[in-house]
Each structure stands twice: as structure tokens, then as C-alpha cells.
Write a structure and sequence with these properties.
39% of the residues lie in helices and 21% in strands. It has 236 residues and is of the alpha/beta class. It has a single domain (15-233), classed as Rossmann fold, CATH 3.40.50. The termini are far apart.
Length: 236
């Protein structure tokens, strides 16, 4: 007889930093052999800074996006999904939760319900992260991208950044987006074997001309580092 258990995600959030939890194991429809040939990790990076002031529904929107990404990860046979917080500094950024997705299951009906439940839990955690603002203004998105890539190690990696895209470096200089990207590129690791999707460009109310500078910065930076399947969405 097949039995399994789904444990709820437990997350502790505080005003200064997200501290976390690990380890949710859920039954899925994947055999161990299938997983071995598709080892991959997914990372969702969530902006905790000033975006919410411009988008009252920010936490709800973030939760929905994270839930969708979780569903894709589960169906795509990703072995682990990690949520990280984007803040202005290391004290307000970092890993929030790591969720294992790769367990065998022999009961398709039960597994489908479990997969949906896990995706919903991941969405709820993401919404909580987005709902806890940082004390320091600014978003070090580049540092969070470094963290995300290091979490993936040598594995194929899918990174989703839910943010307005305005990194602190864009605030501190008037340098053109493509030039700034070239200056920043050396501090990032290679992003080969990595897909990067940025969702929420302009969500902070950035004027159209400034949005194009932000888009150019990310498109150029990600291309320089060898990322594949780069997607930069202007709205949530």
C-alpha cells in the first residue's frame, strides 16, 4: 500500500531579515531514474523593498507568480525550488526556503492533489516574503542573482526575479544601461545553463524612458554572462 505525507512549509519572517526553513518533501509522479536525467534547480527571488508602496496588491501578485513558477517546476521535474529575498544588503537578503520536489509516487490522483497543495504553499510563503518590507531603501538585485546562481551549483538553473528591476547601481549612477552592465558583469558568475525571467519591470512607477534604461541594463548584463531564455516582463 502506498502512503505519503505532505508537511506544511514553516517560515519565520522578521522586519530586519528573512530567516528560514528548509525541507518540505512531497510525493510526485517522477521516478528516480527520470529525476537523475533532469537534475535542475529553480530559484525565485522576491523584492522586499519599495515596490509594495506603488503596488498595493504586490504580495498577492507575487504569491500568484510564485505559485505558477512552482507548478512549472513540479511538472518540469526540478529537484529543488528555493525562495530568496532581495534586500538592500546581506542582512535583509538571502535564502528563505528550500523545497524538495523529487519523490516517487504510485497514486496519480493523490499526487495531483499533493502537487497543487505544495504549489499553493510555495505561493503563500512568497506572498509573506513580499509583505515584509526592508528597513533600508534600495535593492541589490545583482547580489541576489549571485546567490541564486550559487544555490544552483553546476546544475541547470531557472531563476525568476520578481522585482521592478531597479538595482541600487542604477540609482547611484546615470551611466547608460549597456555601459553599466559591462562594468557590473565581472562580479557575476557565468549564467550559462541558466534561464532568467525578470517580472515586474516598472512596477515601482518608473517613467517609460527610465524603464528602457533598466531593461537595457538587464538584457545586456544577462547576455554578457551567457544566460539563455532571457525574459524581461514590464508588468506583473
Amino acid at each position: 500500500m502506498h502512503t505519503h505525507r505532505t508537511q506544511p512549509l514553516a517560515v519565520t519572517l522578521c522586519q530586519a531579515v528573512c530567516v528560514v526553513v528548509v525541507g518540505v518533501v512531497i510525493a510526485a509522479l517522477f521516478s528516480s531514474s527520470a529525476i537523475a536525467s533532469n537534475i535542475k534547480r529553480s530559484v525565485i527571488a522576491i523584492d522586499r523593498t519599495g515596490v509594495a508602496a506603488h503596488v498595493p496588491s504586490w504580495s498577492t501578485e507575487v504569491a500568484a507568480i510564485a505559485r505558477d513558477e512552482a507548478e512549472k517546476a513540479i511538472e518540469g521535474r526540478v529537484d529543488e525550488l528555493t525562495i530568496i529575498a532581495i534586500g538592500a544588503n546581506t542582512a535583509e537578503s538571502g535564502k528563505v526556503a528550500a523545497v524538495e520536489l523529487n519523490i516517487e509516487c504510485n497514486n496519480p490522483k493523490t499526487c495531483e492533489a499533493d502537487k497543487a497543495a505544495l504549489a499553493n504553499q510555495i505561493g503563500e510563503v512568497a506572498g509573506q516574503v513580499a509583505n515584509v518590507p526592508t528597513k533600508t531603501p534600495g535593492s541589490d538585485i545583482v547580489a541576489s542573482l549571485q546567490t541564486a546562481r550559487s544555490i544552483c551549483g553546476r546544475r541547470r538553473c531557472a531563476i525568476t526575479i520578481i522585482s521592478d528591476g531597479v538595482d541600487t547601481r542604477l540609482y547611484s549612477t546615470g551611466t547608460a544601461g549597456d555601459q553599466l552592465a559591462s562594468e557590473v558583469a565581472p562580479i557575476l558568475p557565468s549564467l550559462k545553463r541558466t534561464t532568467v525571467h525578470l517580472v515586474g519591470l516598472g512596477a515601482d512607477g518608473t517613467p517609460p524612458d527610465a524603464i528602457e534604461r533598466v531593461r537595457t541594463f538587464w538584457q545586456t548584463l544577462l547576455s554578457i554572462k551567457g544566460a539563455k531564455d532571457i525574459q524581461i516582463a514590464r508588468s506583473l
